Request: fold
Amino acid sequence: MRVSCTVNRESRTVDGVWEGESLLYVLRERFGLYGSKNACEQGECGSCSVYLDGDLVCACLVLAGQANGREVVTVEGVDAGKIQDAFVEAGAVQCGFCTPGLIVAAHDLLRRVREPDDTQIREALAGNICRCTGYAKIIQAVHVAAR
Amino acid sequence: MKVGESVRRSDGPAKVRGEFVYSSDLNAAGMLWGATVRSPHPYARIASIDTSEARAMPGVACVLTHEDVPGENLYGLEIRDQPVLAFDFVRYWGEAVALVAAEHPEQARRAADKVRVSYEVLEPVTTAEDGKVLRHIKIRHGDQQARAEVVVRGTYEIGMQDQAPLGPESGLAIPDGEGGVDLHIATQWLHVDQQQLALVLGLAKEKVRLTMAGIGGAFGAREDLSMQAHACMLALKTGRPVKISYSRPESFVGHVHRHPGTLTYEHGAGRDGKLVFVRARILLDGGAYASSSTAVIANASCFAVGPYECPSATIDGIVVYTNNPPCGAMRGFGSVQNCYAHEAQMDKLAAALGMDPVELRIKNALKTGSQIVTGQAIDGPVPVAELLQRVRAFPLPSRAAFKGQGARSALSVTRRGAQGQGEGLDLPGGVSNTTHGEGVKRGVGYAAGFKNIGYSEGFDDYSTARVRLFVQEGKPRVEVHTAAAEVGQGVVMVQAQVAGSALGVNDVVVLNADTRVGSAGSSSASRQTYVTGGAVKAAAEAVCKRVLELAESELASDLRIENDAVVGPDGREVTSLATLLGDAVIEETREYRHRQTHPLDPETGQADAHMQFAFAAHRAVVDVDTELGLVKVVELATAQDVGRAINPLAVQGQLEGGAAQGLGLAVMEEIQVKDGVIRNASFTDYLLPTILDMPPVKMDVLELGDPNAPYGLKGVGEPPTISSGPAVVAAIRAATGREINRVPVRPHDLTL
Reply:
């Protein structure tokens, strides 16, 4: 089938998509946007977090067809320079596989809550698993970015 | 960029932008996707394999079975006992039996479903007591008939933990058209992969070239081969690039796990609290293939008593083959399982003696010069008592505040709930809002642990570094090339800092790891900063020496390099490096070996088997909802001697992240295996600590300096994972008064 959508403010169309393909697969393997990661493909780890029409979603749980005609923003297109810098500065990145998802999720938090407290950060990022850092520096990075 | 400075990761900017290329992000023109046919039985004889239907499926380029393995169909880290593709028997659920390559990953998966394997199902061995012994470590230290005034006993069970690195096993094999293959792969040790692949593929090592792709975490899961040989076989057969990337369920059978175990202990002490003897039987289930089990059981045995002096010990460490999933390396490597047991025993002993548990530990703590139960005397700083004192000295989160919180959240649930924010997050049960503080009890627990750094028992443990100095665009640049795996721990920065410090040059670039340079050994055993750091230091110093020889022959004597310039004894610049070097390229390669270790005596387990020892202590504070059996870890505090913190920011990250994995095994992480079958092979069913589960970690990082090590450093990565979990369990015992003899602790262990 054909899928057309806006990805990072650019309209994209791809043909020959198998109906079972997820948005994550299409972003990665058909559009070459490998920033969204494939860690669990079950919506548990948040590594593939993207915006779909402005809502934070796990791209692995969205069928490619569902994205047809809609607007997708991935880590490659999100305007999150301050958050990204803060993650590097704070040491919130180790292996970094969870990081793109966390950047998008933190961006979503900060556009809703300008200066979140620890509890709000924890609640907002509860859907993003990091296996390396123990999260302390991620919380710190979000505080730094919020300043 | 110098040793001792907190430096930002050079790969950080790419990682936060989603531009860093992990092994699962690789692609190539004309690439096929590989899929693996896996055994649905824990133990069965393969009667026949029919691939005809699979071959006829759409998009399929080839289907391979054991008959297509070009070289030897056996591999393994210590013992070559595992087939690349099963040929006579399958010995665990999920074992690889056949391979498919197809144009689309779904076509490959569907074709894999059409490979007809006829099995004669056999009765699997699924309990360790029935297993065949793979290695039995006997430690007979001191008086074997020792008696003591106070004796405590216990049996402790440890569940099977998964490393769960977020990046799936994945890689891309590209045939070179001349019979060789280039493999782009995320692995902990390129050269041991290369060595195993050459045998399996029947190729000379030069024909199997490996290049490191981005690694999405490892923690031991990438020590063994997973899809490496499979992708290479498919690529060589089809003549096209082949990518394999495991799904999460497949990952659970695609790598080894932390050994589950049953540990039976008897501790004897005098009334004064001094340990008299420890007797222990440690039984670990190695699963179907050896992997690194033989080394894991050695660790579990050598450190069975914990970081305490004990004049006599009788330790039997046994690891067995069964038809359960294979187990091998995971962060802590044998010292995690035994720590749960020896620390529970120390608390039990303290209770029996009416002593404070921390005082009892301090009384028995290893010191410089103490012998461990293998007879090895420990040199260098051994700050076990100090670590315990330091974690005890951290102020406790106040109980009054806790009560207040409970009351506040009870009152404010509606108000906050209306705003979509969760105040009850701080209580057991979190946003599930299962308590407002009633039935919640607080407990505090302590634990200490230790383990070896680097490979032990006489292993030739070395790393290789090539350091090159040249002038680029008018400025000196240093390139460092090693094969060390950057798994997230930050060894890429360690290399840059070491080269920068040793050479006094500001622009240091660490090249991507590959097999064009000598082996770095594994990113395992907390060894890479020590061993590859040592190799980079040696190579950089050799380059420095040549530069200074050049300068001194032309200019003056007693020179050194600082800030891109050659300076004299007074610190004044004699010449810039750029001027001195001109077009010259100065390159040196060095191998670095740590001091010699020796095999354990097979009858007594006595030997100087280990190179370096690292120690940590933890204090945990927990709240337990005693009605529902829910645990909230409120705070962790740790103290660890890192010898010298090369990159303090990265050290903190290791202490925090390692503690999270310890917490995971203590209260939630377990691969559920029933009748040899994994029941929870997904992130939905295998629970990992989230940001809501992980409390703040208070830490004291000691830099006491090991006189034998480069810069005095100690390996850092594993100790945080050793005593953190046992401290949590001790705190749960303190909160509930229950004798908890199994991890992870489950709600019904606390309520029924």
Remarks:
- Chain B has a mean pLDDT of 95.
